[in-house]
Write a structure and sequence with these properties.
Strand content: 5-15%
Helix content: 40-55%
Strand order of the largest sheet: 1-3-2
Structural class: mainly alpha
Number of domains: 2
Length: about 300
């Protein structure tokens, strides 16, 4: 039991009802840095909830940035056979990163991940992947939470249209999903050495794609990690939650860090706005050329 973690939950959690009860129960199992490894049935018994409802509550707490799944075991019975969690309510990004070095359970979990005794958290169910490239048409932004991304959807679409930094990678031999995820996890730990694993959120599938795109483009872990570190550093500087992967799924995806945004009265105002250098006339001509065959076909069918 950790009095420190329990006090953080009481003081900082934005949840109530069953979600708060589960968070307090996990704090009761955790160390001073919020790490714990209760099983789903243990949580269900302690909180007087069904196991299905416990899984739903865990996802709710993850989306709110108050809990993160660190690793999952191989199943079966035993002290460390289940998942490892961290109660992050009230913790800053720096405190979460520092906790990996301070918590004995976190260090042991990292060792078991590296030895293959545990696995990264399974991603939550999302829409089926189609293998399409990033574009304004198929990009789906995250629902904003307390630690929302500074990129608004309109600004992100402009960045995607005008950025030419992510050139298509050379064709590579097909890889299975397990290898792709393992490579992405390895690169992520190079970018954020104090993090155990890639956070499990709705942004995770897109983040895995981006990490593998950078690996294909730069050819080595070291080169790809050095290219991605400025995005992670800027996210930390802006106080974005460690579980928010906007710096990967949005910033690195389009190859640009957006300007800092601050809230004004009744509207959002950009700070340090850079002059708009977008060549809209060139974009208009390009779109006209690309759409002209379809427009001609439409005119013929209309006759």
């Amino acid at each position: 039991m950790s009095v420190e973690t329990t006090n953080r939950v009481w003081k900082c959690s934005q949840k109530g009802g069953a979600a708060l009860l589960l968070l307090l129960a996990m704090a009761d199992w955790s160390d001073d840095w919020g790490y714990c490894h209760p099983s789903v049935d243990q949580m269900a018994v302690k909180c007087r909830q069904s196991e299905r409802n416990i899984l739903n509550l865990i996802q709710e707490l993850e989306r709110g940035g108050e809990l993160r799944r660190v690793a999952r075991g191989k199943g079966g019975r035993g002290k460390s056979s289940g998942s490892v969690y961290q109660v992050t309510a009230g913790m800053t990004p720096a405190e979460v990163s520092d906790s990996v070095l301070r918590s004995p359970l976190a260090r042991a979990t990292l060792a078991r991940l590296q030895e293959g005794e545990m696995s990264p958290p399974a991603p939550r169910k999302t829409a089926p992947e189609t293998g399409e490239k990033f574009s304004p048409e198929n990009f789906s932004g995250e629902k904003p939470g307390r630690d929302f991304s500074p990129v608004c959807s309109g600004a992100l679409n402009v960045l995607i249209n005008t950025s030419d930094s992510m050139t298509p990678p050379a064709p590579a031999a097909p890889q299975n999903s397990a290898n792709i995820e393992a490579l992405a996890e390895n690169l992520y730990r190079r970018v954020r050495p104090r993090h155990l694993t890639l956070p499990n959120s709705e942004q995770r599938p897109v983040a895995i794609k981006v990490l593998n795109l950078y690996l294909q483009r730069y050819g080595s872990l070291e080169a790809a990690a050095e290219t991605l570190k400025p995005y992670a550093t800027e996210a930390d500087a802006r106080g974005i939650s460690p579980t928010n992967l906007c710096w990967l799924s949005e910033w690195a995806a389009v190859g640009q860090i957006p300007p800092v945004r601050r809230k004004g009265r009744g509207r959002t105002v950009q700070a340090d706005v850079q002059p708009d250098t977008t060549d809209y006339e060139a974009m208009r001509r390009r779109v006209q050329v690309e759409l002209s065959p379809f427009m001609a076909e439409s005119q013929r069918s209309g006759k």
